[in-house]
Amino acid sequence: MMQPLYAIYGASGFGREVMPLAREQLAGAGIPADRLVFIDDNPVAPVVNGQKIMHYGEFLAAAAGERYAVLAIADGGVRERLAARCALDGVRPWMVRAANVVVLDDVEMGVGGILCPFVTLTSNIRIGCSFHANLYSYVAHDCLIGDYVTFAPGVKCNGNIVVEDHVYIGTGAVIKQGKPGQPLVIGKGAVIGMGAVVTKDVPPGVVVVGNPARPMGRVERC
């Protein structure tokens, strides 16, 4: 029976950080490293960090029983478009999770997520599909995280917070804890700047920066 083929979609910086985690995870399942590749639409070399790079078409044409891809692309909108493309072509999502991730009680997470080293998810949390939690980020109790949300390194998402779809939260940002029945809400497509301290709701599509975080404009979408 033909072995499955696994891919990290994106061979830029984040993809190269995720690759060794994926390699270790698959090795633990008895899957050899040569069944793991990068997909990149503009590859800079045939091999990066010991793993082959394929164009998407090459990946679809390669001999495989089943194909899996995790999307290591920071932009949630791009991730959503690539996820739809993969689904149409029968490429299944998979999750990459570092060995030292801490997940406590009653945590549900959608498909296609990436949990980097030292990430913590505490209790009573719901997370949508294709969530990125980079190094040292945490999500505390009673949070609801939407689809295609990105946490850069060191994001502190405290309890009773709603983060809607396509939100990007920059490195070291802190989100103040909400209240039971009255969560702090980060609206769809908002961007939280690096190091921002968010103490109140952020409207959809708004960019906030600073301590305390203040609006600096709106997200420009292609």
From TrEMBL:
Residues 7-85 form the PglD N-terminal domain. Keywords: Acyltransferase, Transferase. One of its GO terms (molecular function) is acyltransferase activity. SUPFAM superfamilies: Trimeric LpxA-like enzymes. It comes from the Bacteria. Belongs to the transferase hexapeptide repeat family. This is Sugar O-acyltransferase (Sialic acid O-acetyltransferase NeuD family). It comes from Desulfoprunum benzoelyticum.
